[in-house]
Amino acid sequence: MTFTSAWRSPSNIALIKYWGKHGLQLPRNPSLSFTLSACHTVMRLAVTPDADSPGLQVSYDGVPKQSFEPKIKTFFSLVEERFPWLSKASVIIDSHNTFPHGAGIASSASAMSALSLCLMDIHDQIHGGIVPQNSEWWQTASEVARLGSGSACRSVYPVASIWGQTPNAPESSDFFGIPWEHEIAPVFKDYRDTILIVSTAEKSVSSTAGHRLMEGLSYAEARYAEARQNLIRLSEVMATGTDLNAFIAIVESEALQLHALMMSGKTPFILMEPGTISLIKEIWRFRKETGIPVCFTLDAGPNVHLLYPNQYSPAIMDWVNSNLTPYCAQGKSIPDQVGTGPEKIS
Ligand code: PMV
Question: For an engineered disulfide with 153, which of 101, 130, 177, 258 has Cβ 3.0 to 4.6 Å away?
Fold first, then answer.
């Protein structure tokens, strides 16, 4: 018998960055992210447990993609205890991203969360029934996703999520993300994220290598301590929504610290491109001149996430089109916003 499942799951953008891990994908510091909407993965799985010829076939947009298989096999070996049927199953995966993968838009977050949700769903089907998708179910999905890619554990929740233990969120855990939608002011619930695509090239350094660079870095402990403080302060600021300047200061500092960490240590690397710096300077100039509370964050790549309250969308779009697209690859940007989380596709 063959079981099928399909899920759409979004990427997320961290405001407080997870950078540095230990053990089995456990974070050195807590992180907080917005869940995105337009940037997502659609994944379809067909699973035959006890198959005559067990194995894995992965395709992307219908085209076989063997290069994705090692990462998925490693992930399966980590979740086999929870999904024992995986060891003798034939698994066929087809996925599609709405955005370029490997370009520092967290494709592993959307793909690994989509895959985890498909596995959870198929597990429920194999065990004969419809299991209520209550908060415990989502927490397990988040924990499974973490084993695929740390940041993926935050993608299973709408609007915003915290992953990693922090004193201001008693339910928080290093093992799974928790929803953070109800703790933030309305202004953040439809925040915009226009992603300015400086380059669509594959990332030159994997995030695994980046996390590894934190080991032995002399400022690592100071960074983790600062991230913990920044998360507490940011969640206070986001609870009221009245001090966007404080929001901006923390978010931009986190983005620049992430890249400063990459530029430190014994084998440093630079993921920003000249266009990234030009965009940051233009954002600072525009904000000073207009007073519009627009800011940026960066992921592990050259692209710039432009974050702003929805009410400023018309002015920002005019400015993006006239002043910012010249810095973008083929003038490309992706209009995105805080989203409603994953969805099962029938
Ligand atoms: O989930 P990973 O291992 O690919 O790490 C991603 C880390 C950043 O995207 C740079 C930051 C974050 O918290 O998402």
Answer: 177
Mean pLDDT of the chain: 95
Reported as a pLDDT band with limits 50, 70 and 90, residue 100 is low
Q: Cα–Cα distance between 11 and 109 in angstroms, integer?
A: 6
Q: 249 CA to middle of ligand 1, Å?
A: 20
Pocket test for ligand 1, best of 39, 112, 151 (most atoms within 8 A of CB): 151
Cα of 208 vs centre of ligand 1, distance in Å, is: 9
Kindly list the domain boundaries of the chain, sorted by start residue. 3-184, 191-337
Question: What is the C-alpha to C-alpha distance for residues 122 and 6, in angstroms, rounded to an integer?
Answer: 10
Instruction: Give me ligand 1 centre to Cα 20, in Å.
Output: 9
Is residue 52 helix, strand or coil? coil
Q: What is the pLDDT of residues 128-156, one digit of tens each?
A: 877 788 999 999 999 999 999 999 999 99
The CATH number of the domain covering residues in 191-337 = 3.30.70.890
Least confident of 12-16, 101-105, 246-250, 287-291: 101-105
CA 48 – ligand 1 centroid, Å: 32
Q: Which residues line ligand 1 (CB under 6 A)?
A: 14, 17-19, 31, 106, 108, 149-151, 207, 258, 299-300
Given the CA of residue 106, which atom of ligand 1 is nearest to it? Answer: 9
Question: What distance in angstroms lies between residue 100's CA and the mean position of ligand 1's atoms?
Answer: 16
Q: Give domain 3-184's CATH number out of 3.30.300.30, 3.10.20.740, 3.30.230.10, 3.30.2350.10.
A: 3.30.230.10
Cα 144–150–153 angle (5° rounding)?
50
Q: Quick check: 250 and 295 in contact, CB under 8 A?
A: no
| Percent with pLDDT over 90 in the chain | 90
**Cα gap 201→172, rounded to integer Å:** 35
